[in-house]
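hi! just following up on the protien thing from before. the input was this:
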Amino acid sequence: MTDSPFGRVAAAMITPFTSEGELDLPGARRLAAHLVDRGGCDALVLNGTTGESPTTSDEEKTALVRAVAEEVGGRARIVAGVGTGDTRHSVELARAAARAGAHGLLVVTPYYSRPGQEAVARHLATVADATDLPVMLYDIPARTGEGTALTAGTLERLAEHPRILAVKDCAYDLLKTAKVLAATGLAYYSGCDELNLPLRAIGARGCVSTVANVAGPAVRGVLDAFDAGDHAGAARRHRALIPLIDAMMSDVPGTVAVKALFAAAGLPGGPPRPPLLPAGEALTLRLADALRKAVG
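and the predicted 3d structure came back as:
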């Protein structure tokens, strides 16, 4: 385990459901152990977008954190997504996650109501004040709106908070990322698999990866090669993953792709909850083919 409170290769873990759509806690335990013990992951991010957080209840979110922390919390970092569009609700989720055994929190910028930078900063600092856990900010303008994209100035200000230690970067703004890396001690994590190597090359600490659900050792191999000084090998490994990343992320949400591949492999997952629809046969075959070519 790394000395980072957020690990180095974190799977953005799906939330397993039964065939009837209920939370599958035994499946979550089995899946967590698989990702940590055989999947190359030293951290798991729960209740994020890939974990279908918009469709799980607060009680389900807390139960999932507790079950996974009990199963693998001694050998991997457990990071709980607690971001909502409501500051009070996010504070409640943060405190519940802390009680359930989370090691850290992932907090997305508020969405839909389009608060300005001052309001966003206060929201994130308030959630960070709610517990003693370290916080990873989630910068993803494509889902929260350009109006709530964290500016470099806001990130530099939030970096002064003693518990705000990291950023999950899905902003697709390398200039902003480089500025913040140069000006702060924030640990950056790529949140988009196609940027794992480019962001590591400019100083990111690791990744929060959807693809790591199904190809964790290969995702980790890219970073391992780069850190060992084999930059050509890292680039070759990264390029080999691009067709899989494309297949998993371009046509359907990553959740749908992961659950289709898990179903084919006999791993826990179950169907996604509506409004998401499960992958059809043709897509599942295309995903399986891309995975087979990527990992051999």
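Strands lie at 9-12, 43-46, 77-81, 104-108, 135-139, 164-169, 187-190, 206-209.
Residues 109 and 138 are 6 Å apart (CA to CA).
cheers
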